[in-house]
Protein 1
Amino acid sequence: IMALLKFGKGIYESTDGKVNIAYGSVLSLWHDKREAGIADPENASLPDDAALLEAAQHCNIEDLILDEENSTVYFKDPALRLDVGGIAKGWAVERVAELLEKEGGKSYLLNIGGNLRAIGRKGDGTKWICPVQNPFYIDGIEDEPYAVSGEIEDISLVTSGDYERYFTVEGVRYAHIVDPDSRYPATLHRSVTILTKDSGIADALSTALFILPVEEGEALIEKMRKDYSTEIEAMWVEPDRSMDYTEKFLKNVDAE
């Protein structure tokens, strides 16, 4: 847990606050409304703006005090609430990959809730197939189920989108990724897919880039390439059905 929280604080710095594990007070309000809206769509409603504003006063990452020597976690603000949903799955997948590789694992594909982490190739020497969901297929608008389909090895592929965890109020879709600047779910993209070695970084970046315009997302990718000394590529699926890619994304997934 300490290692996960430490990683979360580092990701906060790397993403300029776009991924904030201390944002739980705001996210819990949206979570409750989403669950209620899914259970009773006709009476779905949004969180109160005043409540969101009040909750946002208790999301300072500096109020999360980690004492590694004594293995303690202290909330300087008693109203602080943690939500590690933007990093925990990817971080856990990467820890599993480390264990497998340490034990000599040469040929594995970890698929944990859509977080893909490839170790080597398949037993027959071919790469692992990695289709990326087409959001418009889920919506019943298009017949093609995948935005892109390719093959990977020794890399992670993680997608964040608005087509699985969402609820609808008066015809408007509200997904689960909340922009900390607006305190409302982000709507710039339909999905963002990240390719990079570390699944934890991929998980965090897919969340951060979902909030940012493409140009700002590309700048953040370049920053994190330097911060973590790793290759990172991305694909955006847009509301107008267009797609954007970093320069080497398609090459790295060997997409047809």
Protein 2
Amino acid sequence: MRYMATLLTGVLLMPAAAEARPVSYPEAWTVMLRNDAYQNSAHVHYTFDTNYSLGLRVRYDSDGDFTFTGAQLNRLIKRWNKPNSQANVYGRFGIGKAYDNLDRSELRPKRDSDEALFLGVSADWETRRYFISAEAQHWENGRFGEFSSFHSRLGIAPYVANTGALHTWFMVEGHNRPESRDKVGATALLRFFKGPSLVEVGIDDQGEPLLNYIHRF
């Protein structure tokens, strides 16, 4: 396996928010949906400890035309709480199966399924007004191949909302996917959250839409 040597800096919102973080408060369930030009992904996880959550991950890869289904373990590695900011570092590990999505009528070899796994690390730093974040992942998909992805975000809130009010962020996301058809790109998006729900809508530099949704129970 190729090593991922990437690290990060980041942000999201303030602690009461339904943030895009892989570990919530103990006994909480979280649904995380991500849809863009490269993937359709659903991750449902349960936080059983202040530092760990465990759940199911299903991810359709549009480049490789296969679907990953498996278990994902998330860990809060480190958190820094300051009077006006917070920073976090997270690790992720998933293991499962990759399934072929090719139309059998096509003249292509039948690939069926194979074992697959991924590793990821992310970090964020936040205030009530600004954020920066970064994430790196590496996937091993057996006969379906391997790939890495690197994402970073910058964001600003046009206003500082009180707890329980509607929060809005303007964000720009940059990505590098060395094995994909478009190796480097960017997405402009808006994030809205209120209470336990978060929605992100955007469009990338190729005109492809992005739609993400997160809800905590």
